[in-house]
Amino acid sequence: MKVYGWIAITICMVICLNPCICLEETDEGNCNIYEGSWVYDESYPLYDSSKCPHIRLEYDCLKYGRTDKEYLKYRWQPTNCNLSSFDGKSFLTKFKGKQIMYIGDSVSLNQWQSFICMLHSILPNATVTQVDGEPITNHTFQEYGVSVIVYHSTYLVDIEVEKIGRVLKLDSLKGGNIWKEMDVLVFNTWLWWYRSGPKQPWDYIQIGDKIVKDMDRMEAFKTGLTTWAKWVDTDVDTTKTKVLFQGISPMHYHGEEWNEPGVTNCAKETTPINGLSSTSGLPKASYVLESVLEKITKHVHLLNITALSELRKDGHPSSHNGFHGMDCTHWCVAGVPDTWNLLLLESIMN
């Protein structure tokens, strides 16, 4: 058994060896906002998802038949302090004229959808200009001039179509010219690094002049992250742009992770994992991410959602989505991503 409280403490100790990615103080002094537990709270959820007009069919669990609602009632409670209550008007006022961008795969889209619904619940009649496209979707709250944007990038580094086919270029990151103009950047990638077969969106991998058919995926992940890290150090003015990297979002397809080895997925899970423990530990990708972040010289904050989200085997759509396929990867909206956004706001506003 591995205790997540101790895992979180260990991660914090490792990360805080580098002052560029240390956690910031809260109103009660030094506090690891990522160490704590899920508590039942009747005042939750933060909003009624049926009144949010922006939820995609992948994440709208109640619309697509989920009848149990207990999963909506859990609030993240840090051990030694409290998260600030969500105040959408305060955020929009403080960030007037600014742009926040989520950059990554469909997990980034998942979190962006959550934040849009959180803001809509506070200002249901706000004038919002929507620009939907690929790779950028932008919702701008006109009264405040605040843009909340998602930029779809499965790997952060580039895929280019050449004569030989689609090439994943581990040392090329062209999207950065757009990203670095934002006021807040929230990065994420991992979900697609292990994909193979027909769903794999590339045919070859390139590093410098070397092109290969395939390579160790964890090594490829680390190489791609290192390219991103070098871009941050050379191209981003972190005195003007806040940079965060979201921790690895866990999946729940194997019951042994919560001491039920006969369970094959998250389909019937309605409550979090009891206590603070799990047999699975953190994903290997988490340690790869940490090793890259430790080498960045600029100020980057780890939005460390991995261990706390590991406990939420109940938070996935399962078959309650517009595709009716089994999904223990993404998260219901409303749900766990709302907490990610509260942690995000705590990190960038305090």
TrEMBL record:
Belongs to the PC-esterase family. TBL subfamily. Its main location: membrane. This is Trichome birefringence-like N-terminal domain-containing protein. The keyword Acyltransferase does not apply. Residues 83-346 form the Trichome birefringence-like C-terminal domain. The lineage of its organism: Eukaryota, Viridiplantae, Streptophyta, Embryophyta, Tracheophyta. Residues 30-82 form the Trichome birefringence-like N-terminal domain. It is a single-pass membrane protein. Keywords: Membrane, Signal, Signal-anchor, Transmembrane, Transmembrane helix. GO terms for cellular component: Golgi apparatus; membrane. The keyword Transmembrane helix applies. It comes from the Eukaryota. Residues 1-22 form the signal peptide.
